[in-house]
Amino acid sequence: MLYVEPAEQRERPPGSLWPKTAAGEGRERPRKILVCDDEKPIVRLIQINLEREGYEVETAFDGREGLEKIRTFEPDVVIMDVMMPYMDGLEVLRRVRKDPGTKDIPVIILTVKAQDQDVFDGYNSGADLYLTKPFDPMELVKLLA
């Protein structure tokens, strides 16, 4: 799994996906996670591993559905593929970042697109982390802890 951390993160401490808690005690573990990918076996693999760790997981299988569930489910974190039907993950991400109600939700891109330009495009669109497939689901769980 290729793990690339952006040089600059939006108002978050380096190396942290989660904003400070209201009282400023450090990061608060996310509880609600949206997994958006058109590959159902990948979604199920992530869902099973996250639910085993106590997370509430919602799923979406295309970009349009993902964008709608971001608004209705109000996840703490989104894990999203780039290549999906109806609307690709980067377009979803750009719309999430433009919306004042969703702009601060951490988004992890999880995709097979691993070229330098792909990674650049992901971060330029607002990704907090860019991970590549194949991946170890337990490493993904550790990133969320």
TrEMBL record:
One of its GO terms (biological process) is phosphorelay signal transduction system. Pfam families: Response_reg. One of its GO terms (molecular function) is DNA binding. Keywords: DNA-binding, Phosphoprotein, Transcription, Transcription regulation, Two-component regulatory system. Residues 1-24 are annotated as: Disordered. Residues 32-145 form the Response regulatory domain. InterPro entries: Bact_response_regulator, CheY-like_superfamily, Sig_transdc_resp-reg_receiver. Transmembrane segments: none annotated. The modification 4-aspartylphosphate is found at residue 81. It comes from the Bacteria. This is Response regulator. It comes from Fimbriimonas ginsengisoli Gsoil 348.
